[in-house]
Amino acid sequence: MAYRKTPAELRRLEAAREHLVVRATSVVAEVGWAQASVTAVADAAGIAAGSVYQHFPSKAALAVEVFRRAAGREVEVLGEVLAEPGDPVERLSRGIQVFARRALENRGLAYALLAAPAEPAVGAERLDFRRRYRALFAEVVREGIAEGVLPEQNGEITAAALTGAVGEVLVDPLNTPGTTTTDALLAELTAMALRCAGAPSP
After folding, report:
1. CA–CA gap between residue 33 and residue 95 (Å, rounded)
2. What values do phi and psi take at 184, rounded to 5?
3. Where are the alpha helices (DSSP H) in the chain?
4. How far apart are CA 64 and CA 124, in angstroms?
5. Which of 14, 120, 12 is nearest to 67 (CA)?
6. How far apart are CA 140 and CA 149, in angstroms?
7. What are phi and psi of 162, to 5 degrees?
8. How many of the other CB atoms lie within 10 Å of CB of 169?
9. pLDDT in tens, 143-199
């Protein structure tokens, strides 16, 4: 008869796995993907390096889990803001500001999610999440068109442009803090996004 783990053992393993992912996320935020070795993560988690492989088959699998959780949270927050009641242009503006402010408040992790050199598995996840961001922006742009507050346009193309532009604008400030103030950057970024969508000037 095959051995089956008890509920208590399963809970303990899940708690250990969760702790490992949390510590790995902190390591990535501090040193980036390239330096977040299995040894560095294990040290941060207070376990032997070999114990990491009890939970993940490879460093790449752990990195993918870290990325999915961190990026998934950002998609969730942006989606909540963009889905709020109200004028689509105002929601788009708030969404850009919330996304950028969250990135600037956690620069190391945000840079890792957006641009830091990473292995191919993480690169594939980036592409998937860019599609998710694009879908969120496209929906609010389509609402703006339907309500007559944005001009006729291809919402998918505008959303793709917004997704790429927002990430590109944030890369340097995330990697080289102090180049501009947060408020000034948010104002310029928001203005750019609204121009891209064709929103009338305030």
Report:
1. 27
2. -65, -40
3. 7-35, 38-45, 49-52, 59-82, 88-105, 107-114, 120-146, 155-175, 182-197
4. 9
5. 120
6. 11
7. -65, -45
8. 17
9. 999 999 999 999 999 999 999 999 999 999 998 876 678 899 999 999 999 999 999
